[in-house]
Model the fold of this input.
Amino acid sequence: MQWLTHISQEYERELEDIRTKVLSMGGLVEQHLKMSIDALAAGKTDIADEIATSDYKVNNLELEIDEECTEILARRQPAARDLRLVLAVIKIIRDLERIGDEASKVSRVTLRLIELVSPKSYYVNVLNIGNHVRHMLHDALDAFARMDAAAAIRIAREDISVDREYDAAIRQLITYMMEDARSITTVLDVVWMVRALERIGDHVINICESIIYLVKGKDVRHQPLDDLAKELQQEAPPS
Amino acid sequence: MQWLTHISQEYERELEDIRTKVLSMGGLVEQHLKMSIDALAAGKTDIADEIATSDYKVNNLELEIDEECTEILARRQPAARDLRLVLAVIKIIRDLERIGDEASKVSRVTLRLIELVSPKSYYVNVLNIGNHVRHMLHDALDAFARMDAAAAIRIAREDISVDREYDAAIRQLITYMMEDARSITTVLDVVWMVRALERIGDHVINICESIIYLVKGKDVRHQPLDDLAKELQQEAPPS
Done:
């Protein structure tokens, strides 16, 4: 029996380990995102350069965690909630990796734009959206750490306001392009940044959906969030 | 023993079933992509309308296959290649779903553009890229059906030429915007289409990477394709 307890403790530790690693990876991605926004705001070439070229760190973490998940599936044959944890983690790290990618994109564009000394007014909306999605990511990682499905739903719902901010930003950028045709190439670069940040919002929502799946045992993708919030309120937690 | 043979046959059938369903889902997505490109080329509102609103079919297939994969993991505890198949399928269907999403986006933009009677010249590059990524998707599904890692590498390498076509298309669209500021909103819509098609190319590459992982037992994401081609040539297949 002691032998069995030992195995089960080791298994528990492995599961705990992938949870911890997801949070580390998430922390790194959040930091990259913050730095890429700060680099744009303050025109810091060195920081933008660092983020533009350091997504390999995030990539390596993704591969490492993915491999650990596969190992656990092969050796431990998890069931119920443990299985959901492993499957949710496989999906979450993919979204985190994409967020890291988009943050690098923002920094690559920042490097191009810094040299052009464009008016700061271009950036106001970009920075707002950037900070918004960064907070969403932070909260989503928190919700993962606390296994909080209600928080995950709340965060996912915020996407509507990101979409609104995105539309407003694009409309404003179009005005700039119309006012000065020579600015089009530059402004289009800003459009790419806004787009990258909006996609980060999408990935955060995916992460929230994975958290809900993990906690509630329900695949909630492609389902209206309002219905879901009501539904989950009335339900008992699964095994 | 007969009992065991029976279980193992059933298990084989389940694995075969998810493979078949991935191919059906892939076929549907490919059809949606083709229709969305054709609708743009021929200015067909009815087809564009159908594709813009029918991504729920693809979504449902994703959820269904994903659930079957989870079931197999929970009940059959697959190992080695079977485990890789299930994990690869979970990733592939996610990419297929995104491709379906992007195809719907193309059709939504098509619906907006059809009313504006824009010059056909805007579309030439879009259609070329569209057909290119459609062929890549078709070939990737073929490579999955035949478990052909060499083909998957070949297809993934084509992304370089899609990127080139994408850059050329964007440059041309910028010229249009510069020539006529009133066209900016319309041309930007075309930019979104080109962008959506380019992303489809990215998802096809992800699918190819999943196929290589499945066949060769190697996670090849974030690795240069040239190195990989050489490496895989020298290697024996895994268990």
Notes: The mean pLDDT of chain B is 92.
